[in-house]
């Protein structure tokens, strides 16, 4: 049995009740620079997404999980994306929504749990992350979990005024 639970948090599948939480995360413009989001999402689209969230990772090529504290409060989201079963790899993204919940070890524990799930259950050979060069918190988080910077994508992100670089980080299952 797979247990996606740590000391402070657990990971669970998305539920219809997560509509408002996901809606607020996806429409928080301060988080858009962490992803490729460029336009707001409607509740209707998010509701449709949640209704289809039961798709198997092998079919959907992605998996989004809620990060919950032990009081059953949803505090963030962690994603597997670009899941590639043939080459045994996937990308990982994470967000802790409320700034007050950051730097408490929740993200670190969620990342550890998901990486272990990727290697032990999905039998992936490697996981990777794309992180902006100025996102020191995320760089530190992933590097503390054994990810190595393997490349720099120059002028990779455009915020409407300037370009910035993005690191590619990777962790290979030994």
TrEMBL record:
<feature type="domain" description="N-acetyltransferase">
    <location>
        <begin position="9"/>
        <end position="170"/>
    </location>
</feature>
<dbReference type="InterPro" id="IPR000182">
    <property type="entry name" value="GNAT_dom"/>
</dbReference>
<keyword id="KW-0808">Transferase</keyword>
<dbReference type="InterPro" id="IPR016181">
    <property type="entry name" value="Acyl_CoA_acyltransferase"/>
</dbReference>
<dbReference type="Pfam" id="PF13302">
    <property type="entry name" value="Acetyltransf_3"/>
</dbReference>
<protein>
    <submittedName>
        <fullName>Diamine N-acetyltransferase</fullName>
    </submittedName>
</protein>
<dbReference type="GO" id="GO:0016747">
    <property type="term" value="F:acyltransferase activity, transferring groups other than amino-acyl groups"/>
</dbReference>
């Amino acid at each position: 049995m797979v247990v996606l639970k740590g000391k402070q948090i657990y990971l669970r599948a998305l539920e219809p009740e997560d509509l408002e939480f996901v809606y607020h995360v996806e429409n928080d413009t301060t988080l858009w620079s962490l992803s490729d989001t460029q336009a707001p999402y409607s509740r209707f689209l998010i509701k449709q997404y949640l209704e289809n969230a039961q798709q198997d990772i092998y079919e959907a090529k992605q998996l989004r999980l809620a990060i919950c504290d032990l009081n059953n409060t949803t505090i963030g989201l962690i994603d597997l994306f670009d899941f590639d079963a043939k080459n045994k790899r996937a990308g990982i993204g994470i967000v802790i929504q409320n700034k007050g919940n950051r730097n408490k070890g929740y993200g670190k524990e969620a990342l550890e749990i998901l990486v272990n799930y990727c290697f032990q259950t999905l039998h992936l050979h490697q996981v990777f992350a794309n992180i902006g060069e100025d996102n020191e918190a995320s760089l530190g988080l992933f590097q503390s979990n054994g990810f190595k910077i393997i490349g720099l994508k120059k002028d990779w992100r455009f915020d409407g005024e300037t370009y910035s670089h993005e690191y590619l980080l990777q962790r290979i299952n030994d």
